[in-house]
Design goal:
The complex is a heterodimer. Chain A is an all-alpha fold. Chain A is built from 21 helices and no strands. Chain A has helices at about 5-35, 35-60, 65-85, 85-90, 95-100, 115-120, 125-135, 145-150, 155-170, 185-205, 210-225, 230-245, 255, 270-285, 290-305, 310-325, 325-340, 345-355, 360-375, 375-390, 395-410. The longest helix of chain A is centred in the N-terminal third of the chain and has 32 residues, at about 5-35. Classes of the chains: A mainly alpha, B alpha+beta.
């Protein structure tokens, strides 16, 4: 008597699991065939709705994924016949009909997610749209969840996603994994998106929606499994893994770390850390150095041994500068230089970065630390005050205020 | 797909006639148009006379308003275009990157609206 209800509960539970774990993979296949992000999303949604009643009545099919795909193709054909728009965009109805009539006892489902992620992170899309589209299609986040990540309104984010999907089709952004010539630059864009998702999660409050650090780790592991043996993917995964291992100690980069030498190393997740460090070593052994490998190696140097090997870290920053000659890297290098014994030289370098980094909170925080070490307390206090004024979250603000209080102490200041 | 590549540049930044930079630019445009012709992708391509020769027109109500000069008050002006037919945006962007003016100006790559054959 309660059988239909319990069946319904079981089916919705399975569907929920499929939606979470298989949505990206199913979408990647549908987009490949339909060449239309929105249509693919809509028909997969239609298929999920159909599944509730069909599976509830007839039980689970042999391969739920193949069933969903087949129904999605049928729904797509219906929609295309009604509107004709996707046909114009290049979808081939005959091919779709073959897919729709295929036997669902063939559970050999391909994985097109590598094409999908490279398309989502295409440089013709704005960085924010790349992140949003990646979280939507590969991470399966809802528009509302993505809006919360960016502190946007849901309607604004919905419009952004819809513009991005339209542009992919209208501008002719190819649904392809780039060839060897374009691979390094395009991979860099993809890893940039993954890393940005991670740092956003790292900076945000843990109880606020989805854990983006997990989302980034999932994407990076996915990349690593779809394209194994790429040293930059391994480097990025190593970097995320090491930073994730230290999440309890809340360390982000060298700039913050210099102030946090009294951190509690016992809070680090030992096995995760070990995994990350092993991964850096594998990546480096391939002999094709890149920025993510170097950043991961720097992160590893911070964790190995009782105290960080600053001379080694300084050398790594020199290498990183060759790949990324930016003032932020110069600032981090200066911090390492100070730690390696070159405090005065480091202060000189940091002085030279003032015009371009004057709105960058970590610049003032790092400078304050260096001033404090050099015994320039007044300068240190001024720099801390600037950093506090620029701090974007309460945790940073509080931390900086504590540092300021420690440096200022009872020491009287004028002005 | 067909793409229009619109080439914008600030005349103040363009190479001056008679300098090695000018020669390099000319050689660049020559080899680009040879390449596009050889690849069979070029449908059209023209350079435009300077922006001062432009006349802008609007019809408001019944009234035709003409203005001396280009529409936008920007430093970069439309200086020329190519119309190409290539498989996708990546292919179009590869040609766009070969346009010498991209080194000091801006190239806008825009898909051409595509209508199915009327039958």
């Amino acid at each position: 008597m309660t059988a239909p209800a319990s069946n319904a509960i079981a089916v919705t539970k399975i569907l929920g699991k499929l939606a979470r774990e298989e949505q990206g993979r199913l979408l990647s296949i549908l987009i490949g065939k339909l060449r239309d992000f929105q249509l693919a999303e809509d028909v997969l949604q239609d298929a999920m709705v159909s599944a509730v009643s069909h599976w509830g009545r007839n039980g689970l099919p042999a391969s739920p994924q193949a069933w969903l795909l087949q129904v999605a193709y049928r729904k797509a054909i219906d929609r295309i016949r009604r509107t004709k728009t996707a046909e114009l965009a290049g979808a081939d109805l005959t091919l779709l009909m073959e897919e729709a009539s295929g036997q669902d006892d063939n559970p050999d489902i391909p994985d097109e997610r590598l094409r999908l992620i490279f398309t989502c992170c295409h440089p013709a899309l704005e960085r924010k749209s790349q992140v949003a589209l990646t979280l939507r299609t590969l991470g399966g986040l809802t528009t509302e969840e993505i809006a919360r990540v960016f502190l946007d309104r849901e309607t604004t984010m919905g419009q952004r996603l819809s513009r991005a999907k339209t542009k992919v089709a209208a501008a002719g952004i190819p649904y392809e994994v780039p060839g060897p010539e374009q691979w390094p630059a395009r991979l860099d864009a993809v890893l940039g998106v993954v890393y940005l998702i991670f740092t956003t999660g790292h900076a945000g409050a843990a109880d606020d929606g989805r854990d983006l650090t997990q989302e980034a780790l999932f994407l990076c592991r996915l990349l690593n499994s779809l394209r194994p043996d790429d040293p930059e993917i391994e480097g990025c995964l190593a970097l995320l893994t090491i930073n994730h291992a230290r999440r309890a100690a809340r360390l982000d980069d060298a700039v913050v770390r210099i102030a946090l030498l009294d951190q509690d190393r016992s809070l680090w997740e030992a096995s995760e850390l070990k995994e990350g460090i092993a991964l850096v070593e594998v990546a480096l052994s391939r002999g094709r150095l890149g920025p993510y490998q170097i950043k991961a190696a720097i992160a590893a140097c911070h964790c190995e041994g009782d105290t960080p090997d600053w001379a080694q870290i300084l050398l790594l920053y020199d290498e990183l500068l060759a790949f990324e000659p930016t003032d932020v890297v110069r600032l981090n290098r200066a911090v390492a230089l100070a730690e390696a014994g070159g405090l005065e030289a480091a202060l000189g370098i940091v002085d030279g970065l003032e015009p371009s980094l004057s709105d960058y909170q970590p610049f003032h925080a790092a400078r304050a630390e260096l001033f404090a070490r050099a015994g320039r307390r007044q300068d240190a206090c001024t720099a801390y005050e600037k950093a506090i004024a620029l701090a974007s979250n309460e945790a940073d603000k509080l931390f900086l205020k504590r540092r300021l209080a420690r440096v200022a102490g009872n020491w009287p200041r004028d002005g | 797909m067909k793409y229009m590549m619109l080439i914008y540049a600030d005349p103040a930044n363009e190479p001056v006639y008679g300098t090695p930079e000018f020669e390099k630019m000319m050689a660049g445009y020559l080899s680009l148009s040879e390449k596009m012709a050889a690849d069979g992708v070029m449908l059209a391509g023209e350079g435009l006379k300077e922006a001062e020769t432009s006349t802008t027109l609007r019809v408001r109500g019944e009234k035709v308003e003409t203005m001396d000069g280009p529409f936008a008050e920007t430093k970069e002006h439309l200086g020329g275009f190519y119309l190409i037919d290539v498989p996708d945006l990546d292919a179009a962007l590869q040609y766009a990157a070969l346009i010498p003016s991209a080194e000091y100006g801006t190239v806008e790559v825009r898909p051409v609206m595509d209508y199915p054959d009327a039958g």
